[in-house]
Amino acid sequence: MSWKNQLLRKKSVTQMLEQVDKTESSLKKSLGAFDLTMLGIGAIMGTGIFVLTGVAAALHAGPALVLSFVIAALACVFAALCYAEFASTVPVSGSAYTYSYAAFGEFVAWMIGWDLILEYGVACAAVASGWSGYAQGLLAGFNIHLPHALTSAFDASKGTIIDLPAVLIIVIITALLMKGTKESASLNTIMVLIKVAVVILFLVVGVMYVKPENWSPFMPFGFAGVATGAATVFFAFIGFDAVSSAAEEVRNPQRDMPIGIISSLLVCTILYIAVSLTLTGIVPYHLLNVKNPVAFALSYVNQDWVAGFISLGAIVGITTVLLVMMYGQARMFFAMSRDGLLPELFSHVHPRTQVPQKSTLVVAALVATFGGLLPLSSLAQLTKVGFLGWLSVGAIIYFLYGRKHSRLAAKDDSSQT
């Protein structure tokens, strides 16, 4: 077979579904529409609602931030509809990697999957670092302080060695993921309900302090500011794609995947709009350029007791984001390994829990290393390298390993003999 044909060889939907039915590499079907909705909300609603709202209002959109959220949501709806259609038609782990394998061929699928590994990995490490900051702030409120060397990533000039809380939360999430998908989803549901309850508490208390005059001028930066705000808050919606990683573990994917993806996006959009209206109604928009705008707004009106709950909600919210992202990355390793493009150990499934435990452990080790030792600034640099160095490394790995070990390559060889 020519190199061109090797790079463009595709997996049919029938081949993918047959692969799922193999008991030695199949995942347990234990999730329903409600579980998927909670996973989606868990992945989407995190730093976006607790951090980005303030920055976008203060610097870009003002009270018209509500329009920014509407525009960003509309853009996401079309992508969400595509994911819902693909996930229901091809209920197989791997998300965009799997869909690309059927549509564009092996090499494109590999490169997309390889890039998603970086995206999920850096996101997990960054979220773990953010979780550490919130957790240490909460502990400080109780006058509990960790040794300075264990409070942040390695920095000899500051005397820090490792971000211990970031590593610990990764270990806890990993232990949970290895117990089973249904168990992970159940705890995620509890945390999501707590997070939503905290947001609703903010809305109930905050609406009493809304001053309509704070909404004027409504669009201080013009429509250009609204558009810039939409681009900023678009990242608040990222995460629903991770839901499609669970397609293989859904009992009725044709029905439940579209419900889970669309409903999670809808719920988050409604909450984002309500929070942005309330936030800019309580505090003049130009004062919202802070790291914790929701808690700040309540402190602004002397409701510090609610602000404490908001901080707790932020910690819980970030925890669910980390859980879903690590879940998605482990399934990405699993799918690529099952296709032969990564070593076979990543596709080993535990006989009792039917979870890819080795894949989950490797993901945890990588995320803990990056999250514990690299500062946020360095993690951000890694994403810039990913359109350059990371993809180059990925191409080399494919040509040296993946191209030869691909399951499709083995089928091609057997058909020619």
Provide a descriptive summary of the structure in words.
The structure is a single chain. With 417 residues, the chain is an all-alpha fold. The mean pLDDT is 84. The chain is globular, with a radius of gyration of 22 Å. It contains 18 helices and no strands. The chain is 71% helix and 0% strand. The longest helix is centred in the N-terminal third of the chain and has 36 residues, at 106-141. It has one domain (30-390): Amino acid/polyamine transporter I (Up-down Bundle), CATH 1.20.1740. InterPro entries: AA/rel_permease1 (IPR002293). It is a multi-pass membrane protein. The chain crosses the membrane at residues 36-59, 65-84, 96-113, 160-178, 190-209, 221-240, 261-285, 305-328, 360-379, 385-401. This is Amino acid permease. It comes from Brevibacillus formosus.
Question: Secondary-structure blueprint of this entry?
Answer:
Layout (H helix, E strand, L loop, with lengths): L2 H6 L4 H8 L12 H12 L2 H15 L3 H25 L6 H8 L2 H36 L22 H16 L1 H26 L15 H12 L6 H4 L9 H30 L10 H8 L3 H35 L18 H17 L2 H10 L3 H17 L1 H10 L1
Helix pairs in contact: 3-9, 3-12, 3-14, 4-10, 4-12, 5-10, 5-12, 6-7, 7-8, 7-14, 7-15, 7-16, 7-17, 8-14, 8-15, 9-12, 9-14, 13-14, 14-15
The strand count comes to 0
- The CATH architecture can be named as Up-down Bundle
Measured on Cα atoms, how large is the radius of gyration? 22 Å
Give helix and strand order, one letter per element, not per position: HHHHHHHHHHHHHHHHHH
What structural class do helix, strand and pairing data support? mainly alpha
- Please summarize the sheet with the most strands: none
What is the averaged pLDDT score? Answer: 84
Number of helices: 18
CATH class identity: Mainly Alpha
What overall form do the CA principal axes indicate?
globular
Q: How many domain units?
A: 1
Instruction: State which percent range the strand residues make up.
Output: under 5%
Low-confidence stretches: none
The amount of helix comes to over 70%
Looking at the structure, the CATH topology is Amino acid/polyamine transporter I
Q: For this entry, what is the oligomeric state of its chains?
A: single chain
CATH superfamily: Amino acid/polyamine transporter I
Distance between the termini: 13 Å
Protein name: Amino acid permease
InterPro entries: AA/rel_permease1
Transmembrane segments: 36-59, 65-84, 96-113, 160-178, 190-209, 221-240, 261-285, 305-328, 360-379, 385-401
Membrane topology: Multi-pass membrane protein
